[in-house]
Every structure is written in structure tokens, then in C-alpha cells.
Amino acid sequence: MSERSEQAAALTAPSRSARVVAFRLANPCLTLADISQRFGVTGERVRQILAKAGVATKAWRPPPDRYECWQCHCSFVPSKMVRRTSARTGKEILYCGMPCQVVANTVTLTCHQCGASFPRQLTVVRRNRLDPRYKGHDFCKRSCQWRWYGLTYGVGSPGSTARAAWEAKYANRTHCRHGHLWIPANLVRYPSSPYYACRLCAADSNQRKRARKLLDTSGSVP
To answer: How far apart are CA 50 and CA 27, in angstroms?
Structure first.
């Protein structure tokens, strides 16, 4: 290339970039291929010129009148939609409302203690999986978690010294502390405790609680 052609290219390059930017601003609906054919350059060169100038590289398209929900696949107007960005793909996901958004981000798990199925948010499940203390067990509520840990590691476990001491203490017991017979018919064991208690004492305790609640307004507590 001669010196004269280089000077001509240097003079025409900025003006061509300016014309490309001005043409894009005047025609926002045209694609990069349309602009490249108009100026005789490649679409990648047009994209570089527009990106350097801070102008939108994608062609503008008017929003549709109705969208499709990602969860229930129903059509809805844009004023009622919920926009969310997928953490895995980075793409925008549209929902027709919060119920669909909650259902789409909820998974069903099985409790490791009672075996019941329960829903849980996907973000909570991912956070628990990333926790180094997670051992692969999911629980539907705190009581099931405490019950499982107590039977596995705590006082309720078969090899626990506290359980052995409790069994040795009450092995030959005949009456409870209130004088009721310590027989299997009078014993009860609550789901959150591995030990037995007197059923009659528990009934008396519940009656006292009810009476205290009824007489609480008068100020006289038995």
C-alpha cells in the first residue's frame, strides 16, 4: 500500500466509524448484518465500532404484548411478570407471578428421621450442600433433627453412658415419685425423648396447666 493510500485510509476510517454510529442511532432496528452490508465491512467490525462508541450492538425489538411463564407455560401481560436470572445459565427467566416462582425454586426432600416428604427452597438446599458440616441428612423440622442427633450421638444413642446410667437407675423401679405404679401400662415415651415417663403424672401436669391458665386472670394460682 502506497503512502498516499495510507493517508486516505487514515482520513476515511474515523469518518466511517462516525457514519456507522450515526446510522445505528438512526436505525436501531437493523441488525449488524444489515449495517455491514450498508458500509461494506464485516459484522464483527461493526460490532467493535458500536461497542467502542458505547452504542447498543443488538437490534432493538419491541416487547411482545404477552409473555410465556417458565413454570406453568401460561401467557400473561408484562405488567404482572416476575423477572429472575438463572444462577446456572445467567439467562433471564420470566414467571407469571410469585406462586410460580416459588414452585419452580422448591424441591421435595425426605426426612431422614421420620421419612416424611417436605418441600424446601432450592437456595436453602444449595446452601446446605455447600456447608462443610453437611453429612447427607435432611430433616423436616428441628425436633426430627434433635431426635436423630440424640439417638445417634447423644444421650439416646445405644452406646451412651447417660442412657446406660438412666437404665441402671430405673431398672428395678416399682413406683414413680408420686406413687404411681411403674408398669408398662402407665408409661409413655414422647417422640422427642428416648426415655419413659409416668402417664398419670403427665396427665396431672396437664390438668394443673389448664387450671393455672383458667385462674390466671383472677390472680389466684393453686
So the answer is: 13
Residue 127: which domain range?
111-152
Domain count of the chain? 4
> Is residue 159 included in any domain, yes or no?
no
Residues 48 and 72 placed together within one structural domain of the fold: no
CB atoms within 10 A of CB 147: 21
Give yes or no: residues 204 and 176 share one domain.
yes
CA distance 205 to 196: 16
Please compute, for residue 60, the number of CA atoms within 13 A of its CA located in the half-sphere on the CB side. Answer: 9
In a domain, 122, yes or no: yes
In a domain, 25, yes or no: yes
Percent with pLDDT over 90 in the chain: 1
Residue 171 has φ and ψ, to the nearest 5°, of -65, -40
- State the average pLDDT over residues 79-101: 71
CA neighbor of 57 nearest in space, from 66, 65, 48 = 48
Residue of higher predicted confidence among 39 and 10 = 39
Least confident span in 11-20, 77-86, 93-102, 167-176: 77-86
Above 60 in pLDDT, residue 84?
yes
The SS3 call for residue 67 is strand
